[in-house]
What we know:
Strand content: 15-25%
CATH architecture of the largest domain: 3-Layer(aba) Sandwich
Shape: globular
Helix content: 25-40%
Distance between the termini: 30 Å
Order of helices and strands: HHEHEHEHEEHEHEHEHHEEHEHHE
CATH topology of the largest domain: D-Maltodextrin-Binding Protein, domain 2
Number of helices: 13
Number of strands: 12
Radius of gyration: 22 Å
Largest sheet: 10 strands, mixed
Amino acid sequence: MRYLAFFSIILFLAACSNNNTAEEQATEPGIQILVDESFAPIIDDQYQVFKSSYPNLKVELFYKSENAVIHSLQEGDVGIAILSRKLLPQEIKLFEKREISVRANKVATDAVAFITHKSSTDSSITVDEVTGIMRGAASAKNLIFDNANSSNVRYLKDLAEIKDLPKKGVYALQSNDDVIKYVHNNPGTIGVIGINWMKQPTKELEPIVKQLKVLSVKNSKGLPGSDKFYKPSQNNLALGLYPLSRDIFFIDCQGGRAGSSFEAFVAGERGQRIILKSGLMPNKIPSREILIRETRKP
């Protein structure tokens, strides 16, 4: 029995060693990460927990539009970014010429959401309506974007298969904050933002967000989610029923060096739990711990 107990302890210690979180193993003195500003709420949540847990690991986050993030990556200003897409083949070639490998690590699934004032009669929209507006079709609905260079604009341009925005029906402001405030102050308009801005608004935006609603979306005929209108809920994202979902990636262009401690944190158990609680869809469903206690009869 003594040997068995000793062997069990060795296995336990080995398991603990193997299960050390990657962020605890990382030793970088400081690292900079570019972040698509569409994901500011969820990434800031991750950062606050990370910083309080590992105060000695310095991480700096720089929030920019998608186009600005990719430009900075290509210029070599920063080697890691958080984006809603992988780099395109032609973008990767720029790094290959410098003999730098590019790695993409999916950490979550977000959704492009449509918001409007609660007083608006609109409660739903179809993908066909959205692509029609993006192509310049006459419509009573106006789409309000955060930034002309944002991932939200790029996503819907790709969906509509267009290169340029139409002159009418589509308008771009400066930020996601601006979109939320504009839609609140102009009932009848439809804002286009990442759903995490509605799930985790800043304190300033909380009272404004309460006056807004998220539209349900129906996909084009023959595609998943075309049977009815779906909200960008966690369940619908998991089942692939919400038509406008998108993945969140860590893009590593450091040239073969190990990934950052922050990436390891977000992709790990604690980071994935934060994503799950936020209402987004984590890449890996965190395990649930069930404590079973033996009840003794008196």
